[in-house]
Amino acid sequence: MGQQLVPHYHQRSGNGPPNWAKITVTVKTMTISDRKTLLLLSICAFVLLGAVAASAQEVFSDANADYTFTLPDDKWRMTIKPSPTSPNVEYVYGDRTKGHLEIRKLDIGKNELIGELIHGSEESKLQFMRGYVAGKEENFAGKLRGMVYNFEFLKDGRAMSGRFYYLRSGDTAVYSLRFTGQKASLLSIQNQTDSIARTFALK
Asked: What is the pTM of this model?
């Protein structure tokens, strides 16, 4: 579109009757070219934000581990690296109290349910934690399917929580992604722990 003329009236000063002078104000409206430019700039900004978000992600892959997963935030730092004798890996989110991840491979009976594993050998170990309180269980689905087990406990007088993901990778194998941390901190990064578990997969 071109320019649009919008009339505006102004009263002249003086003692006589009102004498209105017409003043023409030019208002520029957005042209089709302007709109295309604005749209292009918006697309560029969106792509740039996506690139920044992607650069913050890190894919874990190691020759000594038969699994991979994606870390959604560069605050996750590896503290234990897999070795030829142990495929276990550990990460912390800033520091151990804010978020700690351990990954373990567990054996399970061919016809055994994950819930039976949780309430059997797994819960029997957790019960020795100081102030242990069992929480709810959730079904979970990502690249692998399984269950999530939530619980609370005390450590050094602090309220802590655990969120353990049990992901079945075969008839007789389950991977346990064990997240622990201060209760409020772990809750604040639950979207990240869920994301890590959803992207967990075998090579």
From this structure: 0.73
